[in-house]
Amino acid sequence: MAVAEDGPVLEAVGVSLRFGGVRALTDVSFGVNRGEIFSIIGPNGAGKTSMVNCVSGRYRPTEGRIRFGGRDITRLPTRKRAAIGIGRTFQNLALFGHMTVLENIMVGRHHLLRRGFLPGMLWWVGGARREEIAHRREVEEIIDFLEIQHVRKAVAGQLSYGLRKRVELARAMALKPKLILLDEPMAGMNLEEKEDMARFIIDLNEEWGMTVLMIEHDMGVVMDISHRVVVLDFGRKIAEGRPDEVLADPHVRRAYLGEADEVVQEPAEATEPVAP
């Protein structure tokens, strides 16, 4: 998987986050390069989702900065982050259960629609139909890509969990983001569904050119598809690098995999043989 080398599209600089007296993040810094799959891992309560919420705008860091494309977006509202190219999925599905798959995906196009009453009225005379066709064409392309053609008119709330995960990914893709945030995309899936989702994420990155920032507990998936990984533990960064480098780090193995420090035993002193 080729990785672009033209600098970070996203930068977290000294990010700290507190809720009252509780520190969720402490001085976390990392950069996500354009065109890569970048994963955040760590044990439960490590601060992974808090970090992604700082990137998406759901939380505002107590200290530090978030930059996107070189622009400081630390105080930018969530809705405006979507408009500049940041999309996301959620660990707990956030679909409109009473709407069809097609309608849910079309919601993801909202910020691309014409705004303003007068410009809208003038445009409506000749452009409304053309825009609707263009939006539908792009949505249908996403539906084909994620292989959900057979449920496009189904009510989202009646689908299996794995299919609903795909629909949520489709809605995030419909934003046409430069950076897509995936919060536990494999959670609750069986092996076959995980393999499909991993393939979609790789193709999303390679064929659609989207930079991916992913939280995922499945270490096999993380090691197989990520270009780089950052590891959090108790809200602090303890490692960053290629998957093989991170997996070999003793701090990571201790914190994430639960391995104890290796105990080196001193050789036993030699004793004189006892005569029979």
Automatic annotation (TrEMBL):
Keywords: ATP-binding, Nucleotide-binding, Transport. Pfam families: ABC_tran (PF00005), BCA_ABC_TP_C (PF12399). The lineage of its organism: Bacteria, Pseudomonadati, Pseudomonadota, Alphaproteobacteria, Acetobacterales. Residues 10-259 form the ABC transporter domain. Gene3D superfamilies: P-loop containing nucleotide triphosphate hydrolases (3.40.50.300). It comes from Craurococcus roseus. The keyword Signal does not apply. This is ABC transporter ATP-binding protein. The keyword Nucleotide-binding applies. GO terms for molecular function: ATP binding. PROSITE patterns: ABC_TRANSPORTER_2 (PS50893).
